Amino acid sequence: MTCYWGLLGAETVESTKRTRTLGLGAAVRAFNDLAVPGMGGVWFGKQLFLATLGVSVAEYVRSQGKPVDNIRVANAVEALGCWLALNETWEADSRLRGVTKLRNKNKADLSFFVVSKSGFYVSQPMRMATVQALRALGFVESNGERFNSFACTHHGQTFIDIICDDYRSQKTPIKVLAEWINGNKKYINTAGLLSVLSPKTSMPLNARDFLRERLIAADIDSFGANRRKAALNWMEHLLGSPGQKLDWRLKPPMLEQLHWDDLQSGGMFFLTRQAALNVLDQVELQIGNQAKQHLDLRNALPSEIQSAIKELKKRATDFIHLSHDPYPSKIATSFVNECVQDDEKIITSLVQRDGRVLKQRNHFIVPGMAFIGSDIAQHSNTVDDQEDSGIETDVSSDMQWPEWPEGISYRMRNLFLLNIDLHGQLDQWLVGNKNTEDE
Questions:
Q1: CB neighbours of 154 closer than 8 A, spacing ≥ 6?
Q2: What pTM was estimated for this model as a whole?
């Protein structure tokens, strides 16, 4: 059996997409961060390495007198790494971005000036998934959360040095990339740099061990480190006991009760949010399938909408029965309470939260600026939780993926894969990979 699931990880989602925040972004981020604190959208080690390397290279170039910013350099380094990997074999892989975009690029296009241009590579690079984790693991330091303000720490430089240790050249990868930025691309397309930069190349054992140490180190945030350590222990147990069917009624012994309660409450919240989006989709489809493009709330609701609302009420009730909302402002609780009202009020509340795809005029629900009306499945209903990138990964049928508790935070799935990567076994788990962020 092949399993499909979403790997998420970006700072922002473009406004051109059917972004539906529902005003829940803060609650989504809070539940995800309670699940696996500080990890953003990271699911394999090379994501962290390439972003850290980009910061270090940018710092080095600036020290030589050339004004460059972290984002431009890190994006270009990542793009180069993906091109080098794809140039070996043009096959899609979840660890690579831009399979389609980069296919038409050849060695003549590999100057930093070209590679760092907007449009050469994807608009949502893997770097965006690492912003939170780089700080949480102590690989960078800064006075804010902006990537351009990051400075590489000794932990970050150690991580880079370990991975680059086998690079055989008179110059370090940092100096080679610095020269590339200054116009010399002579040493860019080499087997040595491919091994260092390719997202598909496993990290050496000592780098994997170092990353594991940083994941559980308590010098930055003891709460986050303790939860990551417990979650990693759970992932290790699941890796050693493949194919387990997991249930919210049975807490893993390595997790504290509060951690499990946060996970379960988050799962029920995520399921309620998804059910709410489905209600909005059903309303949109109903409007799109009739000549008069509106839904009159004074009339009986179509059966499809009634069924979607019934499911929403069930999911909302499951959350309410837990009586556990760890977020101080109770955003989740307020939203869920709106989802157990009368049917008309539920639609009105959801449309008000939406505001982009659907709008309300008196008793009528009418199309908004992002309305489609048909083929909704072909378009993403992303939620702007600052971690959504739309990557899809296939897990090998030879590997037994855990049957996760319904609704559990995607970060736990990501951590499962990251733990596999820390064992150097990720290639065995990823097959037939595809990347929908292929622009």
A1: none
A2: 0.90
